Amino acid sequence: LEDLEIAPTERTNPYKAYITITYGCDRFCTYCIVPYVRGRLQSRSHTEIIKEAEVLAASGVSEITLLGQNVDAYGKDTNGEYAFAYLLKDVSKIDGIKRLRFTTSHPKDFDQNILEVMASEPSICRAINLPVQSGSDKILKDMNRGYTRSQYIDLVKKIRDSLPDVSLSTDVIVGFPRETEDDFRASYDLLKDLRFDIVHTAAYSPREGTKAAVMDGQIDKKVKAARLNELNEMQSSLARELNEANVGKRFEILVDGSAPIGEGNLQGRTQTDKVVIIKGGPEYMGRYIDVKIVRASHWSLEGEII
User: Contact at 8 Å (CB) between 195 and 238?
Assistant: First the structure.
């Protein structure tokens, strides 16, 4: 694995950094080209990852995100003894690292050990991206996702029971080959019932070289667009409702950049990955500050410094 020990990811922010911990993937979802172009799962040496994190922390980075197509599978390509939960715990204990994030997870590989480490280490952010991709058992099987609708729901319940303050996001594909109206409704109802903070939606697009690209029952573009719009409208309304529940509450945010709206505004994120817009000068950049939420939209919060 010597060829995997590449230079650290280029940084564009002096306070936050990303560390790639795996390359490739062994899951072979039928719509995904990753295993064919990036290869099978290959985990970087945990000693190299920890060393990279220590160097970043010493340079002033206080928030690190561990990256991989499926971070939960870390170590399964070697002997499996040093799993992702161990890496998460070890990196979280590095001096100077105040926040530790990771993405992306796979429901099939997200286990109890990861939950226990998250619950025990306050520096590990209470935010999990857990792509479901579909709420239909038939479509999940066609996608080769490796779990059922009920298994996914049970996992979400287990996560929320262990981490009551967790923020959950997910990914959903609409218009997958052979997706009927009932299949789409299964996805719609799942998202409505589970009430995710963020949902990344996409209309299925064939990738040459994947099994799904040659499946029969390809869905018309207009049907895919209509389903996507309906899903987005529902999630936008739900996200606004969830965000409005934070009005009046206080959070600590890391101020990490200029806000895309409002002249002179800054933005930061809560530990649960909520975007908060504030008014303030450059002296706040890179600082952890307490804010009170005064307004909310479907995609962000507005706060006042306290």
Answer: yes
